[in-house]
Amino acid sequence: MNKLSKPFIMSLLAVGLLTSCLDDDTPIGLGDLTPDEEVFGKATGNFTADEWFPGGQLGTTDKASYSAPAPAVTNVAGMEEDFTTGEDFFEHLYTFEQEPRKGLGPAWVRNSCIACHPSYGHGKRQTEYRANQIGNGYLLVIYHPDNNAYISEVTGMPQTQAMSPFKAPIDETQINIEWKNVTAMESGLPMQFEDGERYELIYPEVTIPQSAFNTNPKPTNYEVRLESTIGIYGTGLLDALTDEDIEAQWLAESKYVELNPAMWDKEAGRFKPSAYYAAGYNDTGKHHGDHGPLKRFTYAMTRGTLQDGAGANAIWNITNVTRSDRHWLYSTPAWAKAQSEDAEVIDYIKQHGASPWSILHPYYADGTEEGIAARVNEILSCSSIAKKETFDNYLFNGAPYNGKEEMTDKQYYQFMVWHRGLAVPAARNLDDALVQRGKELFTQMGCAQCHRPSWKTGNDRMWVDAATKAYAQSVGKDASQMLPRFPNQTIWPYTDMVQHRLFMKNDIRTGWCRTTPLWGRGLSLQLTGADDRLHDCRARTVLEAIMWHGYSKESDAYGSTEKFYRLKKEDRDAVIKFIEAI
What we know:
Number of strands: 20
Largest sheet: 2 strands, antiparallel
Strand order of the largest sheet: 1-2
Shape: globular
Distance between the termini: 22 Å
Strand content: 5-15%
Number of domains: 2
Oligomer: single chain
């Protein structure tokens, strides 16, 4: 295995800085103490040598960056070029007609991926919802409070943008985000530490009036929450964890805390079928037994395997760009019906859609108002596999569709080389006595029970999606060997891959949330300009994030938070410095 480069260690020694590949190599300070050649990569204090490399030897970068390729990419001939091309799809805007990022619309959540993931990191807290605001990583979560089910009138990731003359499913100017202050902790913990230092907690209340929905019917009996994007670096390493090891972790914790009954069969001591993708979904090997891959991505753990995980799904549904395994629009019948009944929409298409070169020509039909309305409803309703053949019959974005995807299998493969190949930045300041003290306290308080420090990846016999497999077959290669792999790596993500409940004010939908990995988060302020944390960016600092864990005595983490509250300030600072170092 290749270790991090000698020049990296020497430059670190010389100036005590790491550099960001996103900011023209602008130096970024990393703390009061800088490791020297005798320390970096070696055991120091209560840290092992491995802990300098959170992503293992194959997954750790020598840059203070969330966007750098892992050694698993750079050490394989030919993969860097695909990584760079895939990165381009993440970083640039999608358009209606301009190659190679063609296919935006007819409605979308964002017109680029990086808009949600500033510098590839966590989204930033917002005071208003504007899709085109760079750093707005928020996804709207609109659901029925009586059963926690998403409303059906808009897509699960609700869209607030649409191409003219269509009206966005939700008028974002009517979305209201109000940040409120916590006046008292439900648990009874004072909002002032025993040494006099105060802390503040805020949370969002989000409302969307019924008038904002351009759908027929309009939704009723709904509530709104926000969920922010998290850093996407290192997700390939989490994909390389085995289903068996994750299940063993859930089993161990089930003896002490209640686990999500939608995922976990308490009596049997194993995952329910709903925790896996369907057996027929996996056709690339026997390593998943009689079921598909285990769900492990997103806050709600709704996605399993990175090739059909949050990012792989988002490159389709955020932009509405089709590909061979997503051969239909991300839309709803309620929105389609509303657009087909909108006189302004129909009149505009009648005036501007006659030309075969017009982007609106697919909707023009016979040119009559009735014909246009029927065609609009039919095309915009093509939102499932059942509608695939219907969708194929229409012109799309001004050219014959004929089964040609807007994102080719090769382009999607390159996107996945990039997505799976993103490295985790090296740890920092592990030779600092305060950081070492913070690690000791982190363990003593019980934080490591949920933020499990380390895992070992398996053989990384990855599941392969249909689009990647199709491209591999076209070039005569084994798809499972064409993507970055991370076999048998000791990694330090600081997550147990388990869902817990914190019982926060205006909590996440369902209350169940996967423990977010902590690796690399200490660079967020330097790389993204913000240090916002938790699922809706309600925590503006590490301190606030910790205290939210103790808002309620019902929280799985209340005991640890209370212990943190009792610490003297020097020890609280040590814990925070440790979290920022890993």
